[in-house]
Design brief:
Blueprint lengths: L6 E7 L6 H14 L3 E5 L2 H7 L2 E4 L26 H14 L3 E6 L1 H12 L4 E5 L15 H22 L1 E7 L6 H10 L3 E3 L7 H13 L4 E7 L6 H9 L6 E6 L11 H19 L5 E6 L2 E6 H5 L8 H9 L2
Parallel strand pairs: 1-2, 1-4, 4-5, 5-10, 6-8, 6-9, 7-8
Antiparallel strand pairs: 2-3, 10-11
Helix pairs in contact: 1-9, 2-3, 5-6, 6-11
The structure holds adenosine-5'-diphosphate (ADP), 1,6-di-O-phosphono-beta-D-fructofuranose and magnesium ion.
The site of 1,6-di-O-phosphono-beta-D-fructofuranose (FBP) has 12 residues, from loops.
Length: 325
Amino acid sequence: MGQKYKSIGVLTSGGDAPGMNACIRAVVRSASAMNIKVWGVEGGFTGLIRGKYKEMGNRDVGNILQRGGTILQTARCEEFRAPAGRREALREMNNAGMEALVVIGGDGSLNGAQKLAELGVPVVGVPASIDNDIYGTDMAIGVDTALNTIVDAIDKLRDTASSHTRAFLVETMGHASGYLAIQAGIVTGAEMVLVPEVATSVEDVAARVEEAYRRGKAHCIIVVAEGFSPPTNELAEAIDKLDHGFTTRVSILGHIQRGGSPTAFDRMLASRFGMKAVEFLVDGKLNMMTALRGREIVPVPIADVVSNARPVAEEYIEMARVLSL
Ligand SMILES: Nc1ncnc2c1ncn2[C@@H]1O[C@H](COP(=O)(O)OP(=O)(O)O)[C@@H](O)[C@H]1O
Ligand SMILES: O=P(O)(O)OC[C@H]1O[C@](O)(COP(=O)(O)O)[C@@H](O)[C@@H]1O
Ligand SMILES: [Mg+2]
């Protein structure tokens, strides 16, 4: 089953992720190779509702492959959560003659894409979020770059921690997911990783800090996912009160994790996802998300993506613990 489109739209939505630009470029250029006109929608679903879009040709996506952020801008759009907002978006799409839409974004954006699909709009989703909390794909665009940023930061923090015999609580992003924290903890040799998916008491954290000191370590790095409870600053206060040999400091890495030039991995993933998104549309594989499974890019129904949660790999928590002893 194939479909000949004259014109399609592309947008980026939710938190930006390094590699979104590489994906926009791939969508525009692969569509252009098939003589399909591409409308670049500005500011995610907000741009769709407001009718903010411009035609994009091959030259409009030159020199963006290596840039972080998104040249189309992104947004979190409350209006789109309501049926009236989505009907407005549909009206604007019809006005522009936009026959299908590629949505590049995270789990929330894919929920939005599903709602459009339910109104009869042919959509393809591309997973892009540093959180890697999207069901159905091994990796989303931006995760690898964010991880490398975190690793670079923790390596630097460890230098100063060791010089001062300090325990550092390093907070990573990830919303309700501990993915970034766990992966970063393993590859930086952190003494402990705290994630929302695994309840850990303040006493357990204190015991781990004491153990690190007893073993003669000059530092104790604890990676805390932002969704962990209690919050990082509260946890640090509680730890600092205890007599374990270290002084305590907190470093909240923040939005630095979302920026920067995408890694080679993210550029490749984004380029492959972008090409496949257009291919899925023209092949009639509608309302699918481009997903990385092993080395292959496969279609996964967006309906499945949004109705399932990505499980946390608990074995990695144990791995982080054993390898840092
Ligand atoms: N259940 C939903 N129904 C309709 N639109 C949604 C839904 N969830 C999210 N969206 C849209 O997707 C946007 C981005 O979602 P958000 O969760 O903020 O980021 P991300 O896509 O990066 O996970 C939201 O601002 C909203 O416009
Ligand atoms: O953009 P904001 O409002 O600062 O949101 C921060 C959130 O966005 C993220 O950086 C990315 O999440 P999304 O990809 O789901 O948008 C989360 O890790 C974090 O919780
Ligand atoms: Mg999200």
